[in-house]
Structures are given as structure tokens and as C-alpha cells.
Write the C-alpha cells for this entry.
Amino acid sequence: MISTHVLDTGTGVPAAGVRVQLFHGEELVAEGRTDQNGRIRELADVEPGTYRLVFHADSPFFKRLEVEIELEPGRDHHVPLLLSPYACAIYRGS
């Protein structure tokens, strides 16, 4: 299982309505939007392998943020995004 959340660190509140896509190679595997708490609790239940998460940000500078991740067998993966108008951080959550 893969999940995510987006926090707008510029305002200190969750970022609702952010479109997130998950790709395996060039294939779109899943897509969703963050809820009012900035979360997508279950973006996809996928096999281990290399995937690309694409966040479509509503920022004056960032329009799209991509990260390539390696999903390991037998565990859930949570990938949060901290986003402000001119800075961002993506990390492996728990």
C-alpha cells in the first residue's frame, strides 16, 4: 500500500485538493486528490518495484514535483510532501 500527505508549510495547514499521480514506468497506476486533511490514505496497492509519484502543486514556483521511489516487498509506504511557495521536501514517512 502507498499513501501520501501534503502539508503547506507556508501557511501551516494541510494542502487539500492536490492531485497526485502514481506511475509504473509510463503507465498511470493510480491518481487521487488530497482530502481536507491533506491526505490520500490509500493511493494504490501495488507490487514491489520502482514507481514515480507526481504531485501537481498549487504554488507560485512549483507546478509539478516528481519523485522516483523503490517499493519494498511486505511493507506499506508513506511518502509525505512538505510544500511552501519556494521550497519543498519529500521524505519516507511511517
